[in-house]
């Protein structure tokens, strides 16, 4: 991949919490318009890695650039080009769906129309519902809407479809595919093998904080001689199959 085609670069990232090494010398380069899946068991370092890329955590060592920006030094500029959806939404409970999206809409010079964002995540019929009255899956979709409203050039999605029903899950997949069509770079943290195989151009597999494989989904399967991505995951990490659920 040419340097000019690189949207996200993480070099030799390390992060320790007390005696626990959460991320151990992880390096990634993600191309413009690429969907990179970040896969691993619970505690493998996935969320810590993307939080360092987003500037939400400071690496103990290593270097991050997102569209050439340093998340620590260029925080204000990064917010204009990076959208982040984390596992737990922390939004004002008393505001309605439309009010929350409208609030974030006001932060950007060229945002998506509020109605377009509502349609994209399937919340048009909940536009007047307060955040506290939404189901867990609806709150998850609202956090995705907030991440997308500013037309970011890079998006981090952490457990995009956890807790969503099959119909809504496929709707979210279609939304991610639309982002790729628009040239948006996506870092997708996931446990869902079907999701990874459908959406991801490449997969970074983490185990105990280290990057143990980086390839296409088909390449991971072929490289391990496995029957499918589930089996390749187990072969590469030594993890139990039930940790995928």
TrEMBL record:
Cross-referenced CDD domains: ABC_DR_subfamily_A
Keyword field contains Nucleotide-binding: yes
SUPFAM superfamilies given in the database record: P-loop containing nucleoside triphosphate hydrolases
SMART domains reported in the protein's UniProt record: AAA
One of the protein's GO biological processes: response to antibiotic
Superkingdom per UniProt: Bacteria
InterPro entries recorded: AAA+_ATPase, ABC_transporter-like_ATP-bd, ABC_transporter-like_CS, ABC_transporter_ATP-binding, P-loop_NTPase
One Pfam family here: ABC_tran
Record-linked PROSITE patterns: ABC_TRANSPORTER_1, ABC_TRANSPORTER_2
Keywords (A to Z) from UniProt: Antibiotic resistance, ATP-binding, Cell membrane, Membrane, Nucleotide-binding, Translocase, Transport
Membrane topology reported for the UniProt record: Peripheral membrane protein
Localization: Cell membrane
Molecular function per GO: ATP binding; ATP hydrolysis activity
Domain ABC transporter: 8-233
Keyword Cell membrane in record: yes
One CC-aspect GO term: plasma membrane
PANTHER family documented for this protein: ABC TRANSPORTER ATP-BINDING PROTEIN (PTHR42711)
Name of the protein in its database record: ABC transporter ATP-binding protein
Protein species of origin: Nonomuraea mesophila
């Amino acid at each position: 991949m040419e340097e000019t085609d690189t949207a996200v670069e993480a070099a030799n990232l390390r992060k320790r919490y007390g005696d626990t090494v959460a991320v151990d010398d992880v390096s990634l380069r993600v191309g413009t318009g690429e969907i990179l899946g970040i896969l691993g068991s619970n505690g493998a370092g996935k969320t810590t890695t993307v939080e360092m890329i987003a500037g939400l955590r400071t690496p103990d060592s290593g270097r991050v650039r997102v569209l050439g920006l340093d998340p620590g030094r260029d925080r204000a500029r990064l917010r204009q080009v990076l959208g982040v959806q984390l596992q737990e939404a922390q939004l004002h409970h008393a505001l309605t769906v439309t009010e929350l999206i409208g609030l974030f809409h006001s932060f950007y010079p060229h945002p998506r129309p509020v109605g377009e964002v509502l349609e994209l995540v399937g919340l048009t019929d909940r536009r007047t519902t307060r955040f506290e009255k939404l189901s867990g899956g609806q709150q998850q979709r609202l956090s995705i809407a907030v991440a997308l409203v500013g037309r970011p050039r890079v998006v981090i999605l952490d457990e995009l479809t956890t807790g969503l029903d099959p119909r809504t899950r496929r709707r979210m997949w279609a939304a991610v595919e639309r982002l790729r069509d628009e040239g948006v770079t996506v870092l997708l943290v996931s446990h869902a093998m079907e999701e990874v195989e459908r959406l991801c151009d490449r997969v970074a597999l983490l185990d105990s904080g280290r990057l143990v494989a980086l390839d296409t989904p088909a390449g991971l399967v072929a490289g391990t001689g496995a029957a499918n991505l589930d089996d390749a995951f187990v072969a590469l990490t030594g993890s139990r199959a039930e940790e995928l659920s």
